[in-house]
Amino acid sequence: MDFVKSLSKQNTGRRSFLWKAGAAMSAAVAAAVPGMANHRTNQGDGLNAEVNRLSNRLGILEDENTIHTLHQTYETLLDGGRYEEVADLFAEDAEVVFNGGAFKGRKDGVSRLYGDCFRSGLTGKKIGSAPNFEVDSEQRRESIKVSADRLSASGQFPYSMQVGTPMTGDSSLVEMARLQGEGIVKWWEGGTCEVSYVKVDGAWKIRRLEYHATSKADYRPGRTHATPIDVPAFSSVFPVNPTGPDRLV
Predict the structure, then answer these.
(1) How high does pLDDT run on average in the chain?
(2) Higher-confidence residue: 33 or 122?
(3) How far apart are CA 95 and CA 194, in angstroms?
(4) Longest C-alpha distance within the chain, in Å?
(5) 144 phi and psi, to 5 degrees?
């Protein structure tokens, strides 16, 4: 009987030990689970943040490529004399600054600039820099910057193009030039084109475009020399000047 009692006490002690050990382990696991859950949550949040960052960066790169293509399209249309299509690249409230004048509104000023002013002088054809008027590396640099929300952007592009304006006056020489299809004063112009963009219904449009001319020269492609030319800026506005700007700048 003493042996049985002793064995019973031993079993009771073992059960008590196992119960305490089990309770301690359960408490440890219970304490660890929230930490593990928090760790997994933090990992998940971090992963989602990284995915969103990479997705946004990819979107910005796509926007930059789209804007680059948009500017190429703009230059191609001008080079080909397709002036009636140029205005479609602009937002409704767009503005273009050219030769000291600001042309406002896609349907009004912007269409007047390209459809009337540029067309009348055959302006916009891409030509190489005039001899001794080459732009430096800083002016040749192209840059595009898209906003963090991807709804607006800005760009800077070099340009080198032919600019022209119809001859004025009623002299016999001017009249003869007009009859021969040469009644246009032409020059080369180079500089930087600064542009701002806005996303409209998911598509990029030009909000504002400004030509910053750094050089103007009397030059035709193929000539081996060029001389500086002084071209007067706009001095009157529309409708006094039928092809003029909405305001002077």
Answers:
(1) 84
(2) 122
(3) 12
(4) 144
(5) -135, 130
From CA 43, how far away is CA 244, in angstroms rounded?
61
Structural domains of the chain, ranges and CATH numbers in brackets: 63-248 (3.10.450.50)
Structure tokens of 85? 């299509």
Reported for 12-21, long-range contacts at CB under 8 A and 24+ positions apart, including other chains, are: none
Span between the terminal Cα atoms of the chain, in Å: 116
24: helix, strand or coil: helix
- Report the DSSP beta bridge partners of residue 212: 192
- How does residue 248 score in pLDDT terms, banded at 50, 70 and 90? very high
Q: Which tens digits make up the pLDDT trace of 125-183?
A: 999 999 999 877 776 789 999 999 999 999 999 999 999 987 665 556 545 644 555 66
User: pTM value?
Assistant: 0.76
Q: Is there a contact between 58 and 73 (Cβ–Cβ < 8 Å)?
A: no
Supply 136's token pair: 């430096």
List Cβ neighbours of 213 (8 Å cut-off, separation of 6 or more). 99, 189, 190, 191
The DSSP annotation for 192-218 comes to: EEEEEEEEETTEEEEEEEEEEEEEEEE
| Short-list 187, 185, 188, CA closest to 165 | 185
Sorting pLDDT into bands at 50, 70 and 90, what band is 184?
confident
